[in-house]
Amino acid sequence: MSQFHDVKKSFFPTRTIESIDKGNRELKRWCREEAAERMHGTTRERPNARFERERSLLIDLPLRWPELCTYTRAKVHRDCHIQVASALYSVPWQHIGQTLSVKLGERLVEVYSSNHAVIAAHLKTARGTRRTDSSHLPESAIAFFSRDREALSKAASAIGTHCEALIQQLLGDRVVDRLRAAQGVIRLADKHGPKALDAACKRALTFGFSD
What we know:
alpha+beta, CATH 2.40.50, three-stranded mixed beta sheet, 7 helices, about 45% helix
């Protein structure tokens, strides 16, 4: 606080600041040439002399700012996912039932094992959505989802070209993530009929759809 007190009591009262740029230049000069040449009350040294003595000990600043992050704990559920900040992230199935440490960075979410090794890393996703790495699932689940995808594709093809295109988009990027959505679309044929569903899919493709 003493530095602010010095600036307030010693710098401003003796000057008229005409502009921010000029004031900043004058303040910089004053700090280096006047304030830093005075005897410091605590160290009993001139700050400029102290700086020269410690200059060789200084290191370069990092090229990027340290990442702001928070840590939490989350349990791995039976579907191989943890819930963090209202979003779901997959974890290798071997850790089902365990409570693990999670690092929430600015861009990444990292999950650590009990021995502090990173076992999963995902780009952050919005609340209510999920990130799934298929390699985290047991082989039986991967086979199940693969078979279900083939069945959904065949069902969509039988309904119509627009339905088939929509289902392919749903399953194209993250099969596990969008599987339920694709199943829900196909089930609409039972209630509204294939023709109406294909027309609705055409409209969805035209105007776009989200997860």
